[in-house]
Design brief:
The chain has 438 residues and is of the alpha/beta class. Helices cover 29% and strands 22% of the residues. It folds into three domains: 3-88, no CATH class; 110-269, 3-Layer(aba) Sandwich (Rossmann fold), CATH 3.40.50; 282-436, Rossmann fold (3-Layer(aba) Sandwich), CATH 3.40.50.
């Protein structure tokens, strides 16, 4: 790979560029301080951080001086004030204008087709739109015609999402649908590090390494943590897109702030692709479950739920890692337990998907972006503050996603009904009512 292909559309530290210094000494290479100062106030130009509390000082091994460094994006590699970021200002990468790149034979529903047309138009005219689609509406398929249109024009696309699990779920589907398109999948620990792909599928953190690279930027699960709470990730995405570009947001549970953004076109898909309504969650009081766990006992209601679904895959959400460990230790049936720090998370999820275990206990890490056939879902401690309206709607949306099994059980075990639980149930009811009117 040459320097042009490697660096075009990226903004990298010297230590991230595997080329000799002499090769970087040319007119098409532009450098800027990795951390700038305005009246003494620092800003990291990789992640946009301006929060003084997220900067530190250290004796730098590179310049042998005291340097300011950014703690906010340190997981990508330390950025110090003595370092520079390198960008390519020469000719852009020219991608093939490939016609008929889509190899997908499925049919879109009426709602999907309407949203698909809006996506195509947004890409053609560099517009900004939100596709508000219920869980299981098939929003990935809604993108296909738009992606095909972009590739036919030689455009470069970033499809970014906050969660690694969602990236891993999307990657094989996109590769099957666009087998002749150069696709790169980027997330922490991924083996695929090809930077010059026409379609880049990444976590939102990886967007920090790109600069004015993409003609089309698609943010899937735009409301998900950490993207929705982290202004640096939003800044990084804005830096990764070209000044003239299309911006497409996807979500089943967008924030009111996003929905009411001026000049943002909102396309709603209130019905699943198979036409069946969203499963309505049931509420069931299970007593003082934290006290029961402290006595090394599972709530009897949870036992009954597990026994009520023999032979079916069961997905149990819990509010924290400590609860997950306790519940897992008390279960007597074969199962896996997953959380954000579990190194075997991907293999455990695949084992559950392939039927090797029938019960998967999880934190909210699997609340969105994953699909399991005929799964039944329960939440233990649905009154916990981590289970917001959006989280509960997403969790309920894991059920009934397949046309072969369009229904299923969604049960919220609680020690007291919360406003968020009621709002989640109302949200689902309203979407179903809108879907019936189509």
């Amino acid at each position: 790979m040459n320097l042009h292909t490697f660096l075009s559309g990226r903004r990298l530290l010297r230590s991230e560029i595997p080329f000799l210094f002499e090769e970087l000494n040319q007119p098409f290479i532009q450098t800027e301080r990795a951390i700038s100062f305005n009246k003494g106030k620092p800003q990291c130009l990789r992640c946009g951080n301006q929060d003084r509390s997220l900067f530190g000082e250290h004796l730098c091994t590179k310049c042998q001086q005291m340097c300011v460094y950014c703690r906010h994006c340190i997981q990508l590699r330390k950025v110090s004030s003595c370092e520079k970021l390198y960008t390519w200002t020469g000719p852009e990468i020219v991608f093939p204008q490939r016609e008929n790149s889509l190899q997908w034979q499925g049919q879109l529903s009426t709602g999907q087709a309407k949203a698909s047309a809006a996506v195509v138009q947004a890409i053609e005219q560099n517009e900004e739109i939100l596709v508000w689609a219920v869980c299981g509406a098939g929003k990935t398929e809604v993108l296909f015609r738009g992606l095909e249109q972009a590739f036919s024009q030689g455009k470069r696309v970033l499809l970014s999402t906050p969660r690694t699990d969602v990236v891993q779920e999307l990657s094989p589907r996109l590769r099957r649908s666009f087998p002749h398109t150069h696709i790169s999948t980027l997330y922490g620990g991924s083996k695929d590090r090809e930077p010059g792909a026409q379609l880049v599928l990444s976590t939102t953190h990886q967007a920090m390494r790109f600069y004015r690279a993409f003609d089309v930027v698609i943010i899937d699960e735009v409301d998900a943590f950490p993207f929705s709470y982290d202004q640096s990730l939003q800044w990084a995405v804005s830096q990764a897109k070209k000044l003239e570009s299309a911006m497409i947001y996807l979500s089943a549970t967008p924030s009111r702030k996003l929905v009411t953004t001026p000049n943002l076109q909102v396309i709603k898909i209130p019905k699943r692709f198979h036409g069946h309504p969203l499963p309505q969650p049931r509420f069931e009081w299970c007593g003082n479950w934290p006290k029961q766990l402290s006595k090394n006992k599972l709530p009897p209601a949870l036992h009954h739920w597990i026994q009520a679904h023999p032979g079916k895959p069961l997905l149990l959400f819990v509010p924290s890692l400590s609860v997950l460990k306790t519940v897992s230790s008390l279960l007597t049936i074969p199962h896996h337990a997953v959380h954000s720090q579990e190194p075997n998370r991907h293999s455990y999820v695949e084992a559950f998907r392939n039927g090797k275990v029938s019960l998967l206990v999880t934190t909210t890490i699997l609340e969105r972006g994953v699909t399991f056939a005929n799964v039944q879902v329960a939440v233990l401690g649905a009154e916990n503050q981590i289970f917001t309206e959006a989280a509960l709607v997403q969790i309920a949306g894991r059920v009934g996603r397949s046309s072969l099994a369009p229904t299923g059980d969604v049960l919220f075990f609680h020690f007291g009904i919360t406003v968020e639980m009621k709002k989640a149930r109302s949200h689902i009811q309203l979407m179903n009512q809108e879907g019936e009117r189509l």
